[in-house]
Design goal:
Ferric Hydroxamate Uptake Protein, Chain A, domain 1, 8 strands, globular, 3-stranded antiparallel β-sheet
Length: 146
Amino acid sequence: MPLALFAGLAIISAVMLKFRPPAAAPGEAASAADGWTPPPPAGTTVSLEIDFGNGARRQFAALAWRKGMTVVDLMQAASQFRPGLRTTRRGEGAKSLLVSIDGVANQGPGGRSWLYQVNGRQGTTSYAVHPLDAGDRVLWVFSASQ
């Protein structure tokens, strides 16, 4: 019986090794498409939370902060995780508008839209130009316009 168990484990291990995805080449970073999640940052961080307005939430508790970082930079950092955050937007700079997060799109006049807050204060400029300080907490909420 122990011999049969050992043989079964050996066969399963061989099959798993044969069909595993290829590793990144030495000196080459794995990409988000490879299912890679960045290691936790060692320095100063900011956090991101997404509230889909239906009880579902996503959280990124510790993303690396850097001087000059904006809310859009934070969203791009969250897209590097697996599963990554998927966003779409229209426009650039001060005229940039977030259109959707993870496939949930703004509904237009009278409907719900994505609104952001930094440290509990509603954003008053485009998220593409809103600067972040170390330790800031960004919250996106899918809700009716106020």
